[in-house]
Amino acid sequence: AIAASKLALTTASALLGGDVTMTNANTYYDGPSVNLGSVGTWFVVAGITINHATGTNQAIGAKLWDGTTVAASGGMESAFAGTSETITLGAIVVLAGATTMKISGVSSNAASIIKAALTNNGAGNNASFIQAVRIG
To answer: How far apart are CA 114 and CA 16, in angstroms?
Structure first.
């Protein structure tokens, strides 16, 4: 029989504490970030919710990165004002030293908002988040 053992995981997580107004169109704004202080291999997953209150067609995007190197990116379009869209990204990153990972968002419309909580039926400040677990 194989003896059961405990696996000690190193984790990090953060939630966006308050909304971030994206004053300018086509400019990335930072959402939540985590400091990964350990060398090794990490699985990082992050989500960002962007709301646009004005205009119609809006293209939004997100990148999961360390401020220099982009580990993952994605985007979508929204046709209606007042809607929120969420982009979720994941990546495995290999770190040689302490690194801060973050998710940043961009919108083709000025005055969009990175949301901390959902506008309707929110369940706390967890609409924009980042989580990481060391896997090696």
So the answer is: 9
pLDDT in tens, 71-93: 999 999 877 777 889 999 999 99
The 10s digit of each residue's pLDDT in 35-49 is: 998 789 999 999 999
Contacts of 82 (CB under 8 A, 6+ apart): 51, 52, 53
Torsion, Cα of 19, 23, 29, 33 (10° steps): -20
Cα–Cα nearest to 63, from 105, 25, 31: 105
Residue 7 has pLDDT above 70, yes or no: no
Which residue, among 21, 18, 32, has the nearest Cα to 101 in the 3D structure?
32
Alpha carbons 78 and 60: distance in angstroms, whole number: 8
Q: 31: Cβ–Cβ under 8 A, 6 or more apart, which residues? A: 16, 20, 46, 48, 62, 102, 103, 104, 105, 114, 128, 130
For residues 12 and 5, what is the distance between their CA atoms, to the nearest angstrom?
22
Q: How far is CA 9 from CA 12, 95, 134, 135, in A?
A: 10, 16, 7, 8
